[in-house]
Design goal:
Blueprint (H helix, E strand, L loop, with lengths): L5 E2 L1 H8 L3 H9 L7 E3 L2 E5 H15 L4 H12 L4 H5 L10 E3 L1 H7 L6 H10 L2 E4 L2 E4 L2 H12 L4 H29 L4 H32 L1
Antiparallel strand pairs: 1-3, 2-3, 4-6, 5-6
Helix pairs in contact: 1-3, 7-9, 9-10
Length: 218
């Protein structure tokens, strides 16, 4: 394993493309974590460099320093990725790793401390060093697509919480049904059948809702 690289303040500032004065300012504003001290010498590492590059990228996208500080605080207080994904829990979902600026680019204008906190509370987001991990590529793609359509991300996340409640209830129905008639091993083998039922019923429900909307407008 490669040794962890560390930098003096001047080298870190040069690599990040900022001045030493700006670096000191960011440190005073607590936009970056404190360095490791060795006597009077401050040592920074690749986590500090990644955070500085993230700050620069987000400033270029129009975020203010106050907003970046609030986002950094929300991320620093976020759930660890190990808690988010579990260790041996099986899943069909593909986690996605993102830098903070990549997340900001996907949800242009929607990345706020409140939305981050809501996504973390739902268990959608976790942190791994300077990276953000989304628990499901499918959910990430859908939520970002809805945000691009002009639907506020806060409302998308609120609806997601309600969908979670219904999904938990459906999962409980399917689990109880299978376990009444077979061993626990059948749950994994038969879960594609449960998914097909839910997808078909949702499709039919959307058909009914669209017909009702059309009748109400006519």
């Amino acid at each position: 394993m490669a040794d962890k690289r560390e930098y003096r303040m001047e080298e870190l500032a040069r690599l990040a493309g900022i001045t030493v004065r700006t670096l000191r300012f960011y440190r005073e504003r607590k936009l970056i974590p404190p360095p490791r001290r060795e006597g009077r010498i401050a040592w920074y590492d690749d986590h500090h460099l990644a955070r500085l590059r993230t700050i620069s990228a987000m400033l270029e996208r129009g975020h203010t320093l106050n907003g970046i500080a609030e986002l950094a605080e929300a991320l620093d207080q976020g759930r660890d990725v190990a808690d988010l994904l579990g260790v041996d829990d099986p899943t069909e979902e593909e986690p996605v790793r993102l830098t903070p600026e990549e997340l900001a680019a996907r949800f242009e204008g929607h990345v706020t401390p409140e939305n981050l906190a809501a996504a973390m509370e739902l268990g959608y987001l976790g942190t791994d060093g300077d990276e953000i991990v989304h628990i499901s590529r499918r959910l990430l793609d859908v939520s970002s697509a809805l945000a691009r359509e002009g639907i506020p991300l806060a409302e998308v996340l609120a609806v997601a919480g309600r969908v979670r409640e219904h999904a938990d209830a459906l999962a409980a129905l399917f689990t109880d049904l299978v376990l009444r008639h077979g061993p626990e091993e059948d749950l994994q083998r038969l879960r594609p059948l449960a998914r097909s039922v839910v997808e078909a019923e949702l499709s039919l429900a959307l058909d009914r809702r669209q017909r009702k909307q059309g009748q109400d407008l006519s």
